[in-house]
Structure to design on (355 residues):
């Protein structure tokens, strides 16, 4: 694949991706480094109403309000993954709202988080970023009810996202059971695409595929909340598929077996990876958790890079009983997703086996 997509009308003279040292969820601090930072941190206040906190690396906090309502609270922000400001805003907002859906919640409002280099970006460009984010919130049926702005060295945008869920239907990453099937809602490869885009090697078709994936709201999560046989739920973002699957394994004390041949990939991603368009975040991810993963020697050498590829606004990862697979896939399909069953969970040492 070659050639960059033509810039949209009104695109900024300065490339947004040139103003940041990383982009999208590839900006995340590597899992191992994050564990070091948080190690031995003094425990905070943990009221009984806090149903989900920081102890299991879940996607959002959940605080019970009453018998039938709990507040889902999360925040997510990052530097540009694309150069078009409107598209950047859309991707960042979709990614932030995903954490509410991943807890089984329904978004109710958002607050904008904005840091922009005012000496480098035109006001029109910054406005377009915010308009992109607001357009996604309108699609989700929620207002952007406020926010906070600062003058920053690199462009940063994201949301505080709030939602509601029935306390009895909260989905976390710790409820998975041995025998559960693993279903992935979106194909992998956004990080590969973004690396190729930065080097001018992503064509218009690849850009369109990246945008379609990264701006698709993970709305099936709301419906999975009511399914008793959906035992665990998360979304795949900056730590890659392996990293977020390991979070389920650790929290649920299980082992995962992943079928590489069944893992869906975005069009052309393997070719781009063979050209060397692999993010530094992929290597940092593997360095953080590779000791808990075994990859069959017979697999494509690029499997490791793709399974650790940081996904910006990636798909939902569902752990469900075997008898619920058809229903889960049907819900994904009704919401416009081509989800795929990719593996199984079982008893054993916490780890992931890729074969």
């Amino acid at each position: 694949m070659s050639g960059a997509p033509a810039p949209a009308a009104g695109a900024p003279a300065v490339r947004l991706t040139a103003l940041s040292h990383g982009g999208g969820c590839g900006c995340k601090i590597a899992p191992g480094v994050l564990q070091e930072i948080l190690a031995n941190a003094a425990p905070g206040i943990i009221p009984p109403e806090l149903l989900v906190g920081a102890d299991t690396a879940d996607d959002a906090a959940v605080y019970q309000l009453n018998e039938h309502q709990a507040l889902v609270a999360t925040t997510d922000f990052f530097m540009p993954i694309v150069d078009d400001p409107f598209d950047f805003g859309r991707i960042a907002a979709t990614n932030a709202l995903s954490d509410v859906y991943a807890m089984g919640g329904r978004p109710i409002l958002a607050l904008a988080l904005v840091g922009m280099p005012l000496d480098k970006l035109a006001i029109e460009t910054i406005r377009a970023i915010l308009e992109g984010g607001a357009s996604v919130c309108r699609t989700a049926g929620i207002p952007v009810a406020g926010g906070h702005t600062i003058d920053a060295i690199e462009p940063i945008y994201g949301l505080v996202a709030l939602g509601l869920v029935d306390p009895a239907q909260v989905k976390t990453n710790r409820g998975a059971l041995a025998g559960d099937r693993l279903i992935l809602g979106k194909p992998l490869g956004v990080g590969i695409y973004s690396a190729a885009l930065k080097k001018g090697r992503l064509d218009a078709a690849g850009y369109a595929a990246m945008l379609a994936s990264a701006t698709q709201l993970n709305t099936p999560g709301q419906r999975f909340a009511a399914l008793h046989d959906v035992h665990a739920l998360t979304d795949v973002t900056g730590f890659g598929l392996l990293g977020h699957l390991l979070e389920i394994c650790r929290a649920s004390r299980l082992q995962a077996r992943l079928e590489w041949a069944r893992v869906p990939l975005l069009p052309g991603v393997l070719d781009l990876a063979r050209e060397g368009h692999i993010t530094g975040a992929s290597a940092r991810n593997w360095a953080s958790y590779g000791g808990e993963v075994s990859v069959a020697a017979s697999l494509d050498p690029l499997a490791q890079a793709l399974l650790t590829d940081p996904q910006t606004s990636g798909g939902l990862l569902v752990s469900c009983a075997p008898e619920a697979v058809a229903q889960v896939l049907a819900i994904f399909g009704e919401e416009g997703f081509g989800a795929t069953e990719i593996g199984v969970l079982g008893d054993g040492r916490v780890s992931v086996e890729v074969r």
In short: The first strand starts at residue 50 and ends at 52. The radius of gyration is 19 Å.
